[in-house]
C-alpha cells in the first residue's frame, strides 16, 4: 500500500498571485498551440465542384458548347455555379456550427492561485503555476510534481507505453507532460512549460475534437447516390445508343440522356444530410447536449436503454449533512448547501465540537480527510472540491470545530470508486500521528476493531456492528447517502488501514433533480428502459429510485453481479433491475450483456475508469461539469448540465432528425421518380423531349434542394416520444416508403406527361413550359405528404414549419420568374403560360394535396379506434 501514499516536499505551497500569473502570461503567452487550420472558404467552395455529378455537368456543358447550344451552355454553367454557392453556404454553416462545438470542449485546470484552489481555463496557465492533478485529468502543461498521492500517469499518448507510470516528487519520475493523462491518484505540480514550449506539442488535436467521421447515414446515402448515379449513366448511354440506332438527332439524344441521368440522381442529398445533422447538433447544444460525433445524433434516436449513474445525474449533487449518528447519540443538523449558517443539535439543544468529544472527532475527520474547502465570496459561500467532502467540511464549520493547519496531512491514500474510502495520516496535536478515514460505511467498518462512545472507545463486537448497520440501513432507506468515519493511532509513517476506531455515520441528503421524474416518464413512454447503476448503497439507490418514479426493481450489488454467469445476468436484464455498490468495471459487463440482447445502449460515466464502458456503449455519455477529461474523450455525447433529463431530450432530438432525414430522402426520390417516369414513357412513345436538361437541373438543384433543407428543419412530431425506438437497421426508405415514392412518381410523371401531350398540338415550347411548371408545382405540393410520415397535416399544424412555407414561396416565385422573366426564359427555353394552363395545373395538383391527407386521416382515426398509436412502420 506504500505506493499509494502521499509523498511531498513539505513546502507550504500557495501558488502564484493573480498579478504574477498575468505578468508571466505577458512573457510566455497563452498555454495553447497554434490551431490546426480549418478549411478556408475558398477550399470549401472549390470542394463543391469535385463531385461526380458536377464533373458530368461540366462535360455536358462543354459538349453543349461544341454543338453550338450556347444558351444551354450558359444555363448549365449557371446551375453549376448556383449549386456551388448553395453547397458552399450550407457546408460553411455546418463547418461553423461544428467549429463552435469544438471550442466548447476547451479544457480546464485546477490551480492554486493566491493561496486557494481555482478552476481556470487551461489556456490561462503559466510557468510557475501550481496545478492540482486528479485522476482522469489530461495534464494541461509540462510540470514537475511537488506532492503526490498514489499518482500514476498514462503516458501512452506520448510514448506509446500503455502501462501507467508511477510519479513522485524528486528525481526523474517527477516530470509530467502535457497531453498525458492521470490514471490514478492526485498531485500538486509546478508548471514548467506551456503551449508550444511543452515537450508534447499536440494538445489541440487531443482535447476532445468533434469527430468529422462520416456517419452511417451519410455512408448509406452516399452509397445510394452513387448507385443511382451509375444506373443513370447506364440508362442514359443505352438511350443514347438506341436513339442513334433509330436515326434520331445526336444533339437531342445526347441532351435526353443527360437529362435522364440528371433526373435520376438526387443531387441535393449528401449536402442536405450533412447540414441537417450539423444544424441538429447545434440545436442539441441549445438543449445542453453536446454531440462530439455527428454519429451520436443519429444513433441517439434509436437508443433503447439508458444506463445512468445516480449521483449528480439523477440527483442534484448538492450534498448537505442532515444527521450524524454515533453509538450513543443521534444529532440533527440544520441549514442547506455549503453555507455554514446551520447548527448541530442533540436532544433539541445546540451542540458543537467544544461540548462533545465524539462529535469533535467526527468533525475533525470530515475536515481533515478531504480535498474540499469553503470560501466566502461576497455574501455567499463557495465550495471547491467533491460535494460529498464539501458537505462534511460544512458540517465541521457548523459544529465550530478547529480547522486543521494547512500542512497537517503527511500522507494520503486517495479515494477511488473501487476502494470506496479515503485515508490520511496527520500530525496530531499531541505530537504523534494518527490515521483518519472516511468512506462507504461497510468499507470503513471492516477496518475497525473499536467503536467510540461518550465514555471512550469500546471494543466493536457483534452487537455494536449490528447497531451500526441498522442505523446505516435506516438512514439509507430514507434516501440519504451515508458516510462512515473512523480514526486510529498511526504506526510509524505509513497509513495502516486497520485496527481503527469507528466514530460514527454522517447522513447526507442529495435531492433528486426535479426535472428527472418527468424525463423518466417520457423515456418509459417512448419505450426506453432506464437502468440505474450507482456506486452508492443499495438502500439509498432504492429510495432515490422510488422518489424518481422508477418501477420497483430487483437490486443487484456489484459483488452479486460478479458472482453471476453471463446467462444469469442476461436473464436479470430482461426484467426491471437496479445496480448498486458497483465498481466502474461492472458497467462494461452490463453494456456487453445488453448489446448481446440487441439493445442500443446509452451509458453515462464520469470517472477515469468509466472510459472503456463509454467507448463500448452505442452512445457514451459523459458529464460536462463533473466529468473527467478521459471520460469526455471517450464519449459521444457530453451533457453540459450533467442532467439525466438532457439525455432524454437529446434522444427526442435524435428521433426528430432521423425522421426528418427519412422525410426529405423520400421527398427527393419521389420528385426524381416523377421526372424519370415522364421522360422514360415519353421516349418510349417517341414524343419530343418533355423536359430539357437545364429544366431538370433547375427542378432538382434549385427548387427541390431548398425545399428539402426546409423539410429537414421540420419540428418533432407531437407523438415522437410515444412509440418504441426504431431498430438500428431500419431502412431509410423501406417498402412502404418505396410504395409512396412510386405512387407519387407515377401520378406526377403521368399527369405532367398528359399535360405535355395535351398541349403539344399547338406549340411545343408552350407544352414543355406547362409540363415543366406542372412538375415543379407538383413537387412543391407533394412536400406536404412528407411533413410527417404518418400524421395528417392538420394534426401537426399547417404553420409549424415556417422555413418550409418560406421555401415554398421562394421556389414558386422562382418558377413564376422562370416562366415570365425574359432572361430566365432564354436560359430555360420557356414561354409565358396563360390562365387556362395554370387552371389545368391547379386541377391536377389537387389529388397530390388531398389523397395523402385523406389516407393519413383515415389511418389516424383507425389507429385511434384500436387504441393504438399511428406508428410509422414504413
Ligand atoms: P454514482 O455511481 O451514482 O455516481 P457514487 O458517487 O455514490 O454514485 P462512487 O463515486 O463510486 O459512486 O462512490 C461510492 C461510495 O464511496 C459512495 O456511496 C460513498 O459512500 C463513498 N464515497 C464517495 N465519495 C467519497 C469520498 N470523497 N471519500 C470517501 N468516500 C467517498
UniProtKB/TrEMBL annotation:
Source taxon at top rank: Bacteria
InterPro entries for the chain: ATPase_P-typ_cation-transptr_C, ATPase_P-typ_cation-transptr_N, ATPase_P-typ_cyto_dom_N, ATPase_P-typ_P_site, ATPase_P-typ_TM_dom_sf, ATPase_P-typ_transduc_dom_A_sf, ATPase_P-type_domA, HAD-like_sf
Compartments in which it is found: Membrane
Transmembrane segments: 44-67, 73-92, 228-248, 268-285, 732-757, 798-818, 838-855
Tagged with keyword Amino-acid biosynthesis: no
Protein name: Cation-transporting P-type ATPase
Species of provenance: Leisingera caerulea (Phaeobacter caeruleus)
Membrane topology, as annotated: Multi-pass membrane protein
